[in-house]
Amino acid sequence: MVHDTTVALAALGVAGQAAVAALLVAGGLRLAGVRAPLALARELVVGYELWLGWLVAAVGTGGSLFFSEIAGFVPCELCWYQRICLFPLAAVLVLAALRDDHRVARYLLPLPVAGAGVAVYQLLIENGVVGQSRACLVSAPGGCATRWIDEFGYVTIPTLTLTAFLLTFALLLFATVEAR
Questions:
Q1: Alpha-carbon distance 18 to 25, whole Å?
Q2: Max CA-CA distance within the chain?
Q3: What is the pLDDT of residues 40-83, one digit of tens each?
Q4: For residues 61 and 136, what is the distance between their CA atoms, to the nearest angstrom?
Q5: What are φ and ψ of residue 163, in 5° steps?
Q6: Burial of 48 (0-12, 13-18, 19+ CB in 10 A)
């Protein structure tokens, strides 16, 4: 069950990465003066930005809790910082979506930015680019560099959280446009 759920979460992560890549290409084209791709992406989610953001944050929260509470993976210090940024998104976005309150999106934007920053830092540690701090080493078995999962040759827990934060950030940006 743990392996099957891990593979399913990793597959969702890869789908999320494809969506992030498409949005980055559309954003790059928009900067180059081509408006249609980003306008199409915006049109596909208009009215559902908060619900989709909540879905991403809820799956991320559920996945995080699955890894720690069911799979038994001990969250390191950096994982806790990422959780601090992710869990409130799930709670607040569902409330905002229920009230159709797009104005709250601009106040939530710092959470995925901070969470993505921590995820990138943990990926740098995992890949040996930067060393672990003492706090990392004592926070979990193997510290913050432990790869509890490694699906498809690159999908680790920080990869999944980075994907969730980037996708949530994009959806919140779309929601801020709706709030104007």
A1: 11
A2: 50
A3: 999 999 999 999 999 999 999 999 999 999 999 999 999 999 99
A4: 22
A5: -60, -45
A6: middle
Amino acid, res. 149: I
CA 138, 154, 118 angle in degrees (round to 5)?
A: 45
- Both tokens of residue 51? 């619900």
Structure tokens at 35: 């408006």
Other CB atoms within a 10 A radius of the CB of residue 117 amount to: 15
Asked whether 102 and 96 are in contact (CB, 8 A), the reply is yes
Q: Which long-range contacts (CB under 8 A, 24 or more apart) does 147-151 make?
A: 148/67, 148/71, 148/73, 149/6, 149/10, 149/67, 149/73, 151/6, 151/7, 151/10
Global pTM exceeds 0.85: yes
